[in-house]
Amino acid sequence: MKLNAFALTLVAGSAVATSAFAQQEYDELGGYDRGHDYDSEQYAAIEARFGPYWPKIDEEVNGAPFDDTFGKRHYAFGLQVDWQMLRIPMLGTLGPGVGWSWVRYSAAAPFSDGTGSSDQNTRLWIMPFWGVGVLRVDVFAKNWQIPFVPYAKAGMVYALWGCSSGDERCRSADGKLGRGSELGTMWAAGLMLLLDWMDEESAREMDNSVGVNNSYFFGEWYSSNVDSFGDGMQVGTDTWTLGLAFEF
Amino acid sequence: MLRNKVGAWALAAGAAASWTTVAQADSVSVLDNYTIDRAEERDSDEEPQTISLKDCEEDAIVSFPLNVTATELRTMEVWVGPESCLDLEVRTEQCHRVWGDEVGPNNPNIEIESSLIVSESQDCATDSSSSTARSATLLFAFEGDNGEPASEGSDTLVMKYDVVAPDPPHVTSIGQGDGQLSPQWDPLEGSDVTGYRFYCQESTTTQEEVDDGDLDQAGAGGQGGAGNGGGCQTSMVAGERPPPEAKFCGEQAGKSAGRGTVTGVTNDRVYTVGVVAQDIVGNEGTISNVLCQYPKEVTDFYEAYTNAGGKGGGGFCSMGYGRGSTPWAGFMLLGLGMGWARRRKRRP
After folding, report:
1. CA distance A75 to chain B (A)
2. β-sheet bridge partners, residue A125
3. Which domains, ranges and CATH numbers included, belong to chain B?
4. Whether A163 and B176 lie within 8 Å, measured CB to CB
5. What's the burial of A31, exposed, middle or buried (CB within 10 Å: 0-12/13-18/19+)?
6. Which residues of chain A have pLDDT under 50?
7. ipTM of the complex
8. What is residue B18's three-state secondary structure?
9. Are B325 and A118 a contacting pair at CB < 8 A?
10. Do B175 and A120 touch (CB under 8 A)?
11. What is the pLDDT of residue B133?
12. E-assigned strands of A114-178?
């Protein structure tokens, strides 16, 4: 009984919100309901991501070789594409996503005898790829005009990395090549701010012309453990990311 | 009426005769696909049809393919000057004759020494200090009745020569690396420089002298030749060409480059390093101020990581090191891709 009442309330609320979202507009011929007639089908999202990337390399070795060598914060750039495969009524979308990012560190290599820094650069690059499930709770924005979309992601990461020194690839003292690939896990949680309300007319035009339903600015907390389950270099990180997202 | 007919016939005959004279006039034309015979071919972006200082000094032969229209052997001359040598005054004052012989209608190639095209004295010198290329205009003409080149049926070709090498840069310091050195210099402005080349010579100067004597600093030494106690011990001299005992040890492309890497040097040995600028046709200038430095072992990031107990690395396909991440990752990505494709296929 209680469940039925709740469902009824939800349906009613949804109807009211939908009705509110279908805005009435006026011109010289009188009022008209623009409603949702301009919405194109929404099936995916794409994100451009930018944020600091500080790998947790030093957590799994003695000392702090990464911090000692590179020392300062570097930023990663990345992209992610989600397929909004499933729409859950009164909640949002759920679907798989794939992403890629890239970060590069460079610093003067120290002399082995500890007498300072050389003029030879040593560099490390990390390129994580990930496959995740993404839940975007867009019911607030769609039904109640609250322009926030919380979301969560979880999945697997596969990262390539490589080290160079001067014009050569790095090698360890026993000749092992300084590059590798690692597997691991990740999760992320974030909040997207819907930008359409800033200029609704442009948002509609973008939808009509290129099929972009919504544009967002987002901030995300991202945590990954990418060390081949203890067998490789820990190139995962705990960090925040900012970016722009487009649903289309 | 008759007079008119005769007049018309005479006019037609005159025109035909005139046409015949033009059609059958002897002429020479030079094709623009001439070549310079050199030991090392230059790439197409290095202006292979321009005479360089090396071409000139080695007397590389320039071969010009001709197209000759003549009923019999004719004496032809080739003159070179800054502009067309047809004008007597120009020819007398500014041109010199570089070739002369009989040619016939067999489309011959004629060969001329490049040094002769650059200057009459064949000393590969010009009166200009500019390192940009200059033009020479070659006149190909039959000898006229008066013994001078005839304008009728002649042809000209403009070709470039660049026999002035760029000035040397000023080297400001030599940085140290592991098995390498990093010279830095002030990039040259306003010349046709396309890159810089490095010359090295092992020196008897000690590491202590380098460290204490500030020899790697501009103006503080390293300028002298052999036996100069105030600088690096070397036979390389600023402002002269690198001596034979100095080895080429690296290069850096780009006029605006101000830093490069010397390779092939051994840690803890002191080297004198000089930099020369190079232009588009490969002319190498004289050597810069020479400074000395020694390469020194460094610890790169991966070495520091493995020294700290890190287990990662070995290559992207590092299965040989007993690590299983790569195949697992491959399976995971393959699975994701197949799942995605199946869902897309099922979609109406």
Report:
1. 18
2. A104, A162
3. 25-162 (2.60.40.10), 170-293 (2.60.40.10)
4. no
5. exposed
6. 1-23, 33-37
7. 0.80
8. helix
9. no
10. yes
11. 85
12. 117-136, 148-165, 168-169
